[in-house]
């Protein structure tokens, strides 16, 4: 019994000794919190978050815009000085050998009209090439008007790629007016005009009125009288000279020289017959037969038919 009590006392002492280890009661266990190391971002991750599209060049916002504005496009300002209000605009590369007269898409699409003096901003790609891989340097422009009775105008073989400013103009008024362009380039201060080139292209340079020219009668030389030859009777003192007078219809038609055939027909009516020939000097030439006179015309590559002569 004593042995059991002694054994219990020993066990109790051992427990108490273990509980009092590390004076101060509870054992202070210190834990060290590690500072998290920032995970390095993959290269390009931050850049992608801040990436923005390359802004276009700072340019004025124009009210009237045709073409597509991109970071590589070229801007050309086109001013309407034709005297009419433009409603449609077509622009295409010049191609004299084209088998069809295809103008592509109309560019305004009803978004605006250009009154006389208004400006349109045209954006186009300057480095376009044709099917043969050649750089395109010349373009044609076709415009139509809000006035349905006003003819469309054509401006051909324009060197748009060197232009900084383009004005669509009109020489004259009414049906006889001739559309042409004026422009400036970055390399010169000269104001260029296509008027003379247009006149040459449609055959309006060096045209003469074809009308009969009277040939004066030659005065006969008297023959010396021979022996036993009867003396000729004296000639009349005054020799009548043929003076042709131009038919009134032909005179009226002559006033249309340089104008379109449509305008002549609107004023004088349609001819009784017509035919067309390919002349070596003037190209395609039309002959229109009225009852007392004939009208000749010259047809350019665009189909414009201009009165060239009357006889």
Task: Describe this structure as you would to a colleague.
The chain is of the alpha+beta class and 311 residues long. Helices cover 15% and strands 28% of the residues. Among the domains are: 65-201, Immunoglobulin-like, CATH 2.60.40.2890; 248-310, no CATH class. It has helices spanning 2-19, 45-50, 195-201, 248-254, 261-268, and strands at 65-67, 74-81, 86-93, 119-124, 139-145, 153-158, 163-171, 178-185, 188-193, 273-279, 283-289, 294-299, 305-310. The chain has a six-stranded mixed sheet with strand order 1-4-2-7-8-9. A four-stranded antiparallel sheet has the order 10-11-12-13. A hairpin with a 3-residue loop joins β10 and β11.
Q: Which helices and strands appear, and what pairs or packs with what?
A:
Elements: H1 2-19, H2 45-50, E1 65-67, E2 74-81, E3 86-93, E4 119-124, E5 139-145, E6 153-158, E7 163-171, E8 178-185, E9 188-193, H3 195-201, H4 248-254, H5 261-268, E10 273-279, E11 283-289, E12 294-299, E13 305-310
As laid out across the biggest beta sheet, the strand order is 1-4-2-7-8-9
Count of DSSP-assigned helices: 5
CATH fold descriptor of the domain at 65-201: Immunoglobulin-like
- Overall body shape: elongated
Number of strands: 13
Order of helices and strands: HHEEEEEEEEEHHHEEEE
Largest sheet: 6 strands, mixed
Q: For the terminal residues, how far apart are their CA atoms? A: 164 Å
The CATH class assignment of the domain at 65-201 is Mainly Beta
Which bin fits the share of residues in helices?
10-25%
Indicate the structural class. Answer: alpha+beta
Low-confidence stretches: 15-29, 43-58, 208-215, 239-245
Spell out the CATH superfamily of the domain at 65-201: Domain of unknown function DUF5300
Taken as a percent bin, the fraction of beta residues is 25-35%
């Amino acid at each position: 019994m004593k042995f059991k009590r002694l054994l219990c006392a020993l066990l109790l002492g051992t427990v108490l000794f273990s509980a009092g280890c590390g004076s101060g009661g509870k054992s202070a266990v210190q834990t060290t919190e590690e500072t998290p190391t920032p995970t390095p971002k993959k290269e390009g991750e931050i850049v992608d978050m801040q990436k923005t599209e390359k802004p276009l060049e700072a340019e004025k916002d124009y009210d009237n815009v045709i073409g597509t504005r991109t970071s590589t496009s070229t801007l050309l300002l086109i001013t309407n000085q034709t005297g009419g209000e433009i409603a449609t605009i077509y622009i295409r590369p010049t191609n004299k050998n084209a088998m069809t007269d295809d103008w592509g898409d109309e560019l305004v699409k009803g978004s605006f009209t250009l009154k006389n003096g208004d400006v349109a901003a045209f954006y186009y790609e300057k480095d376009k090439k044709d099917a043969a891989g050649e750089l395109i340097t010349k373009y044609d422009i076709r415009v139509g008007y809000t006035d349905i009775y006003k003819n469309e105008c054509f401006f051909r073989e324009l060197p748009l790629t060197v232009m900084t400013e383009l004005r669509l103009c009109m020489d004259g008024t009414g049906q006889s007016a001739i559309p042409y362009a004026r422009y400036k380039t970055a390399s010169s201060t000269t104001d260029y005009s296509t008027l003379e080139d247009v006149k040459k292209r449609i055959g309006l340079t060096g045209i003469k009125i074809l009308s009969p020219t009277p040939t004066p009668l030659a005065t006969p030389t008297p023959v010396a009288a021979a022996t036993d030859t009867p003396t000729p009777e004296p000639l009349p003192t005054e020799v009548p000279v043929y003076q042709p007078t131009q038919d009134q219809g032909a005179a009226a038609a002559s006033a249309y020289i340089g104008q379109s055939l449509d305008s002549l027909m609107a004023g004088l009516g349609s001819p009784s017959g017509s035919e067309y020939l390919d002349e070596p000097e003037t190209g395609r030439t039309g002959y229109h037969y009225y009852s007392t006179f004939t009208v000749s015309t010259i047809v350019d590559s665009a189909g414009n038919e201009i009165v060239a002569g009357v006889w």
